[in-house]
Amino acid sequence: MEHPVQEWQDYVHKKWLQLPSDVKIQFSASSDLAKSFMMCWSQLQQEEEEVLEKLCSDLSVKKEPHAVLFYKLEGNKRFGRKQYTAAAVLYSKAISHASPDNEEMAICFANRSAVLFHLAHYSECLEDIERAKEHGLPDRLKCKILKRQTECFQRLKESTNPSASSSKTESARPVENSTAYNTDVLIDKLELLKLNSNSQLSNASSSLCLQNSALKGRYLQASKDIGQGDILMWEDAFVSVIIPERTTRSDKYQWDTSITSCDLYCHHCLSRVIAPLSCQYCSFAKYCSHECMSKAWKSYHNVECSLGEVLLTLGVFCQTALRVVLVAGIEQVSQHVSQIRSAEPQVIAPSHTIEGKAGGKYCSNYEAIVNLLPHVKHHKDEFKFLCGLTAAALCKKLCMNKMGEAIGELSLSEKPNIQEEPMQKCSSKMMVVGPTLFRHMLQLHCNAQAVTVLQQEHDVTDYSPVESQKSSRLATAVFPVLSLLNHSCNPNTSISFQGRFVTVRASRPIQKGEEVAHCYGPHKSRLPIEERQKLLMAQYFFTCQCEACTEELGSTDKLTDFCCPKCQSPLKGEAELHCLTVTCLQRSRRDQLLLRLQCLEHTVDIAREQLQRNHIEKSIIMLKSCLSEGEKFLSPNHILLGEISDQLAQAEASKGTVFHGNVRSETVCTAKCY
């Protein structure tokens, strides 16, 4: 989902194949990103515009009045089944399509207040009651709403009264849990106040120092001994973009009722929200408060709003690149034109730190983002062409929509004639914005951070609680200071999130002089060294030389070992293998185990194909079965087990999260996008 929809990728692939050889050679040889971008811009023809329009039509974010009744009725069904969280989301979907000061919107707010009451979210219930009144609640419903409002005040009073009955206290427990959670957050924030004494890094512990070498580039090192659990860094994302589920409607009267992270988290601060506020102009953006809605509108959504379906089509990386430009502003972007145009990395002396907002410290600012490597020489030419043409398509939409005022005179008096002097009819600002988007899209391939949310939930359908845990990637974010951490397959840090804030802690004691690193994804406990090295080279263009990889080099023979099918202990031998456990002494033939391995590999290939065809549930079932089978006769370090686990993780992440009941707890983790 970071990249454009598959249909656009396929179209650009065909266009790349049809380009004349001399154009490809010129594009490949260019070290000036502005010239490369203009070459992509020149390839935009009427056909590309029509293809993009067709793809965008399937991902509309416009408000559709007919959807209001549809989602309201679907919400009523879930409410009748006591699927309250699902009902709340569906009422929110109805609200997102409704017009202000409309009776239907008022009724939807009233219905959602009923759900919130049953979920014991009494404060939110009261807010929705007020919204229902503001938007013209019919007189026939005012008595019912007034009764609910009175009951809410009573429940809130009981939740703070120690003498309240046990049953009523139980019903108010979500409020108490919320208070406890907020207390934990405050304790963490008090500890974070200590992160102000580092002379090199903003919001970093004084136990860290910024180093630079020809081999590693910039990296972080422990300047003194660090204890396990110590907070090392705390950073607010420069930008974050929530990852949407890509669903298309089979016809214009059918709307999507699935519940995704986009329905359950604020699109600005990434906090959990049960009763979101919708954008006044589109049906997609949702926020936890008027404050977040206002911040988003002033920073970026005033431009992105009318481009909703375009951004969904062109992918999260494209939207993230645009949001970086919008948040930074055209003045800041213009100050770095020479760096933006250059495909070569800036040479930084070991003693040099890039100036930020606070007296020479390395900060989470736009200058730090510009200096992240775009890896132009490492990316494949076709991928660069995809990014360039995608950036050009977005720029053209910006021109045509006359939305340039927010980023500095980007608007046009007329649509550009791309076949004749394509850039001259655009504002001079576009000459800056286009290459900037191109550069940032290339940077994001290696520097984007995936925010992943793990949730425990239960379904109260038919009064039979069924607990499960699912994971999904919530957002793509950019953390310039966090990007200083190099990769290790056996990291000494752990990362967690509170909304769009990342906290880095020491996962074990770290000695003075030791490099501080985290894992970009491939971990020694999950993947063998060959697979880790392959993934890191493909995604990040380096050969990992961390301690874990160094220790494993030369011992790859153990990766193909079998284990005893009876007791899972190691096997030893040539044609005939015997168990090393004295009490077992099980014997197995190597050829039989090899045949069993071949069958398992074939099944894994089928499961991988199912995943590629978007048959996610089938893929997950098959992969879980394969993992169970493999663990019966393969060594824990066998490369196939690592592949199965990796495919299963990708399948689970692709599936997203569907909620049917009350969320019980939430843990947030992170991984680099790969």
From TrEMBL:
Q: Name one GO molecular function term.
A: histone deacetylase binding
Compartment(s) of residence: Cytoplasm; Nucleus
Main subcellular location: cytoplasm
Q: Where is this region: Disordered?
A: 157-176
User: Keywords for this entry?
Assistant: Cytoplasm, Metal-binding, Methyltransferase, Nucleus, S-adenosyl-L-methionine, Transferase, Zinc, Zinc-finger
Is-annotated flag, keyword Transferase? yes
Give the matching Gene3D superfamilies: SET domain, Tetratricopeptide repeat domain
Q: Which domain of life is it from?
A: Eukaryota
GO BP annotations, alphabetical order:
heart development; methylation
MYND-type domain: residues covered: 266-305
Output compositional bias ranges, type Polar residues.
Answer: 159-169
Swiss-Prot/TrEMBL catalytic activity: L-lysyl-[protein] + S-adenosyl-L-methionine = N(6)-methyl-L-lysyl-[protein] + S-adenosyl-L-homocysteine + H(+)
Signal peptide residue numbers: none
Instruction: Show the CDD domains listed in the entry.
Output: SET_SMYD4
Any Gene Ontology CC annotation:
nucleus
Concerning InterPro entries, the annotation shows:
SET-MYND_domain_protein, SET_dom, SET_dom_sf, SMYD4_SET, TPR-like_helical_dom_sf, Znf_MYND
Q: Which residues form the SET domain?
A: 206-521
What the protein does comes down to:
Protein-lysine N-methyltransferase. Monomethylates PRMT5, modulating its transcriptional activity. May also act as a histone methyltransferase. Plays a critical role in cardiac development. Acts as a key epigenetic regulator of gene expression during cardiac development via its dual activities as a methyltransferase and negative regulator of HDAC1.
Please identify the protein, giving its name as recorded: Protein-lysine N-methyltransferase SMYD4
The organism named in the record is: Pelobates cultripes
